[in-house]
């Protein structure tokens, strides 16, 4: 069951790292065997999120190296405010985030160098202390 109430969403989310580093690349000519984690079709063409190691192996250009954090709460696609609350909390620390909303969860790509800070802030927002 998905949750729409913002207060319940924030209290219920359990931010979790997904292993690896991820980058956004032009997906126009990606080989079919590359594991694509997410895609967006824009007017300029398709873009994809893939593992950094795959992008490096293929010699693909990218500008941003991100850590993937999943907000492991099943948010309703009609919920209001979760993205704003999360991005505002991270913005207080100078951490940008790229949000990918999936059918089951919301996912954040934050600068790989600030991943621990982001996870700590999100856990604090949810009322859960970070494990030591």
Characterization of this structure:
It is a single chain. 27% of the residues lie in helices and 33% in strands. A hairpin with a 2-residue loop joins strand 2 (36-42) and strand 3 (45-51). The protein is globular. The chain has 132 residues and is α+β, with helices and mostly antiparallel strands. The longest helix is centred in the last third of the chain and has 11 residues, at 115-125. The protein has one domain: VC0802-like. The model has no long low-confidence stretch (mean pLDDT 90). It has helices spanning 6-12, 52-58, 82-91, 115-125; strands spanning 15-26, 36-42, 45-51, 66-71, 97-101, 106-111.
Query: Which strand-content bin applies to the residues?
Result: 25-35%
The domain tally reads: 1
State the share of residues found in helices, binned by percent: 25-40%
- Helix count, DSSP H or I runs of 4 or more residues: 4
Structural class estimated from helices and strands:
alpha+beta
What is the average per-residue confidence, as pLDDT, rounded to a whole number? 90
CATH superfamily: VC0802-like
Major sheet size, sense and barrel closure: 6 strands, antiparallel
Q: Return Rg in Å.
A: 15 Å
Distance between the termini: 31 Å
The outline comes out as globular
> Taking strands numbered 1, 2, ... along the chain, how are they ordered across the largest sheet?
2-3-1-4-6-5
Looking at the structure, the CATH topology is VC0802-like
Query: Care to count the β-strands?
Result: 6
Low-confidence stretches: none
- CATH class call: Alpha Beta
**In CATH terms, what is the architecture?**
2-Layer Sandwich
């Amino acid at each position: 069951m998905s949750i729409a109430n913002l207060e319940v969403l924030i209290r219920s989310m359990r931010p979790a790292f997904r292993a690896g580093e991820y980058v956004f690349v032009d997906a126009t000519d990606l080989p079919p065997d590359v594991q694509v984690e997410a895609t967006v079709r824009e007017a300029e063409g398709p873009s994809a999120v893939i593992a950094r190691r795959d992008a490096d192996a293929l010699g693909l250009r990218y500008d941003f190296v991100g850590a993937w954090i999943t907000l492991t709460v099943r948010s309703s696609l009609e919920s209001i405010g979760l993205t704003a609350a999360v991005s505002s909390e991270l913005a207080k620390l100078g951490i940008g985030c790229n949000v990918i909303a999936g059918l089951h969860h919301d996912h954040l790509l934050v600068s790989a160098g600030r991943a621990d800070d982001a996870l700590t802030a999100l856990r604090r927002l949810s009322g859960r202390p970070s494990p030591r």
